[in-house]
Write a structure and sequence with these properties.
alpha/beta, 6-stranded mixed beta sheet, transport, 850 residues, 45% helix, GABAb_receptor_plant_PBP1, 8-stranded mixed beta sheet
Length: 850
């Protein structure tokens, strides 16, 4: 029996192991990748060959996929979004793990909707619509740039020639409309605009083009930007040529659709004649060994299809998918698909590993034929630059554009070491001339005056923008925000054995102690008649009363209040304790971690009133500001010329010929603190200023340099420079001295104490009133109307009454209630009555606290 049970358990365990590990399945012999693109198209012809070459290379490389064969399943939608969606569904039924393409933005949008539901990554090498975002389509990626990128290049070209109005001709679909919208945004940043938009139907014909272009002749601008689909027959520009619009009176710019078209054409003279003077963009792919080998291989194959740039992107995309699948198989071991009953899509299955495969794709980082392949936060590929092509009896590269370098006649690769000049759209011949003797800090006011007098064309450096200086020269946009701060020695506070009393003032401690005593008395009085825990010998009652009160601080009471009034008082008291203990803990933590100054200076105000010597940087405007604006006597101001002098003066201190603190601009202080840990900034900056470059009045360079500085700021380069050079030991903001925490006093909690005291007193008075009423009722039942009037004095009677009342309220509540429940007893029998006997016995057997 035991053996059969063990066998069953073992079988179940084995089953659970295999069921619980569905991902640890056998590595497949074949993995399928879909490819949706139009075979017979400008981009498709070259992409098809490139992807087939990639699959061949992948399957012949033993370092990838570990013996699994990659199979490409191709479908041709023939430029139809409907056919593309149908073919995508058919392809997914064949259990592809990813879809490469499509080249059309419209088809990519529809397929991405399907991919979202079935967890199939879609990677396009040609869809450039900027609205294909990662938020709406989390499974969509692209290895090419978005139209937002190349529209920024077009806008820079337009801005370089100072054209302010253009006409946009575009195909009226998502690709065209969204591309032109992106162009409008980029032009707005250059203070230019699209004056007229001329849409064309996706299936435009000659008559439509002629009609649109003829109407545009009556419009003002003569600069055209054309954003349409690749045009293998150059139908559009043939009409332009026929209408006599390829002349010096018109400017024609196109996006990269024309360069793709030119790559696919045989290069005959007639085609080039049509395009005379047209400027277009082409993705820039720097030469590298992999690219050269691929081009040689393409030529040796003697293919009918001409090589295109997008063929390289297609090749890299297939390798991207293969490398990601390889990582997936190494971690998972196999592929699984499952039916999703919620989707109700028949035999269509969800790729269980789609999310993980997507993660591997988005985290890829390798160098392919087209350069480095890496995705940003929006799952777009960064670092794609453009060549600027001018067609003049041939195609000529006239320049380059990069998102980092802007326009340039040099390639982006060669400009990597020349970036603060590349932001200005023209060459600036310059010569640096040092100012000063190199031994001490120069006078910056004198430097600015020399620029104003024409001795220098400009002055660059740490020149503060002040009111007096801005009257003489034009400053650029500030490249560094500054302000005067106070820096002084800081030391960690040493905790004494009595540091725990620092959070509260003496008044606060006394009030808190008094509150514990009051609460102890009130609770004891309210509970004494009803709660046995608060009764007993006097010594026991004293211990119970105070231990109960102080133990509420730790919520560890053995005794629990029974009376309603006692519970109400306890609720209010515990709320007060919660606030007090939380405030005490926070204040003590601050005291234990705060940094304290050896000089007692907390900021500029205490520095002014201290009368101690103050250091400043030689040549800085800080001297005049401290003397004239803050009225610090000149005898207190000590000139310092180097970081070594800063450190020496601060370490010596005011008693040994040094200074109590130094006042200087923030960047200098940050540079000083980058190598120091014993000093820190006190408080916040007490002035607001900035540094800029100085140019002569009305110099055009001031505006262009300001634009370049803004680009550096927007790209985050300035912040990187700051962190690299000024924050080696932590930025000064991280080491600012925190203000000394203040002690908590009674004024901060008077409302809580008043609330608690009010409830305690009200509860006590209610108890007292009730007890008096009970005592009067008791005495009225015991009174003998026939007894003669006593001759005892009133003072003795009063003291007896008080004594009797105290004895009465010392009785248990049960005994009093029982007495009132009995019928009234004649006065002659009152001393022998059962109730009276009960009262006397109780009074005799239990010692009274009063």
């Amino acid at each position: 029996m035991e053996l059969s049970v063990m066998a069953v358990v073992s079988a179940v365990l084995v089953f659970l192991v295999f069921v619980g590990r569905p991902l640890q399945c056998e590595q497949p012999a074949v993995v399928k990748v879909g490819a949706v693109f139009t075979f017979d198209s400008v981009i498709g012809r070259g992409a098809k060959i490139a992807m087939e070459m990639a699959v061949e290379d992948i399957n012949s490389d033993p370092r990838i996929l570990n013996g699994t064969q990659l199979r490409m399943v191709m479908e041709d939608p023939k430029c139809s979004a409907f056919m593309g969606s149908v073919q995508a569904l058919q392809m997914i039924e064949k259990e592809v793990v990813a879809i490469v393409g499509p080249q059309s933005s419209a088809i990519a949008c529809i397929i991405s909707h399907i991919a979202n539901g079935l967890h199939i990554p879609v990677i396009s090498y040609a869809a450039t619509n900027p609205t294909l975002s990662s938020l709406q389509f989390p499974y969509f990626l692209r290895t090419t740039a978005t139209d937002s990128n190349q529209m920024a290049a077009v806008a820079d070209i337009i801005d370089f020639y100072d054209w302010k109005e253009i006409i946009a001709v575009f195909v009226d679909n998502d690709y065209g409309r969204n591309g032109v919208t992106a162009l409008g945004h980029e032009l707005a940043r250059k203070r230019a605009t699209i004056s007229y938009k001329l849409p064309l139907c996706p299936e435009y014909n000659i008559s439509e083009i002629s009609d649109v272009l003829n109407k545009s002749k009556a419009l003002g601008p003569r600069v055209y930007v054309v954003h349409i689909d690749p045009d293998p027959s150059l139908k559009f520009f043939r009409i332009v040529k026929k209408l006599d619009m390829i002349t010096s009176n018109y400017i024609w710019l196109t996006t990269d659709w024309l360069s793709s078209t030119l790559d696919s054409l045989p290069g005959d003279r007639d085609s080039l004649e049509i395009l005379q003077g047209v400027v277009t963009l082409r993705p820039y792919i720097p030469n590298n060994p992999k690219k050269k080998a691929f081009m040689a291989r393409w030529r040796n194959m003697q293919l009918k299809a001409k090589f295109t740039t997008y063929g390289l992107y297609a090749y890299d995309t297939m390798w991207l998918v293969a490398r990601s699948i390889d990582r997936f198989l190494k971690e998972n071991g196999g592929l699984t698909f499952s039916l999703n009953n919620k989707l109700q899509l028949g035999n269509l299955k969800v790729f269980d590993g789609g999310e993980l495969l997507l993660k591997f794709i988005t985290s890829s980082n390798f160098t392919g034929l087209t350069g480095k392949i890496q995705f940003d936060a929006d799952r777009n590929r960064g670092g794609i630059d453009y060549e600027i092509i001018n067609v003049v009896k041939g195609t000529y590269k006239v320049g380059y554009w990069s998102n980092e370098t802007g326009l340039s006649i040099q390639s982006p690769k060669s400009l990597k070491g020349n970036k603060v000049r590349k932001l200005v759209p023209y060459e600036i011949p310059f010569r640096f001339e040092p100012f000063g003797d190199g031994l001490k800090n120069p006078n910056y006011d004198e430097l600015v005056r020399l620029v104003a007098d024409g001795v220098f064309d400009a002055a660059v450096g740490d020149i503060a923008i002040t009111t007096n200086r801005i009257k003489l020269v034009d400053f650029t946009q500030p490249f560094w925000a500054t302000g005067l701060v106070v820096v002084a020695p800081i030391v960690n506070s040493t905790s004494s054995g009595w540091v725990f009393v620092k959070p509260f003032t003496l008044e606060m401690w006394c009030s808190t102690a008094a509150s514990f005593v009051i609460i102890a008395v009130v609770i004891w009085r309210l509970e004494h008649r009803v709660n046995d825990d608060f009764r007993g010998p006097p010594r026991r009652q004293l211990k119970t009363m105070f231990l109960f009160s102080f133990s509420t601080l730790f919520k560890a009471n053995y005794e629990n209040p029974i009376s309603t009034l006692g519970r109400i008082v306890m609720v209010v008291w515990l709320f007060l304790l919660l606030v007090i203990t939380s405030s005490y803990t926070a204040s003590l933590s601050s005291i234990l971690t705060v940094q304290q100054l050896s000089t007692g200076i907390t900021g500029i105000d205490s520095l002014i009133s201290s009368g101690l010597p103050v250091g400043y940087q030689e040549g800085s405007f800080a001297y005049s500001y401290l003397k004239n604006n803050l009225n610090i006597h000149a005898s207190r101001l000590i000139s310092l010329g180097s970081r070594e002098e800063y450190e020496s003066a601060l370490r010596r201190g005011p008693k040994n010929g040094g200074v109590a603190a130094i006042v200087d601009e923030t960047p200098y202080v940050e540079l000083f603190l980058s190598t120091q840990t014993d000093f820190g900034i006190l408080g916040l900056s007490f002035t607001r200023s900035a540094w800029g470059f100085a140019f002569r009045k009305d110099s055009p360079l001031a505006g262009d340099m300001s634009t370049a500085i803004l680009k550096l700021t927007e790209s985050g380069q300035l912040q990187k420079i700051k962190k690299k050079w000024f924050c080696k030991s932590g930025c000064s903001d991280e080491r600012r001295r925190k203000p000394e925490p203040k002690q908590l006093n009674l004024s901060s909690f008077w409302a809580l104490y008043s609330l608690c005291g009010t409830f305690a007193l009200m509860a006590f008075f209610l108890f007292l009133i009730r007890a008096i009423r009970q005592y009067i009722r008791y005495k009225s039942r015991q009174m003998d109307p026939s007894s003669p009037t006593s001759s005892i004095s009133s003072s003795i009677l009063f003291s007896q009454a008080i004594h009797n009342f105290l004895k009465f309220i010392d009785e248990k509540e049960e005994a009093i209630k029982k007495m009132f429940a009995q019928p009234a007893i004649p006065p002659t029998q009152s001393l022998n009555s059962e109730v009276c006997h009960l009262t006397i016995v109780s009074a005799c057997n239990e010692p009274h606290f009063w």
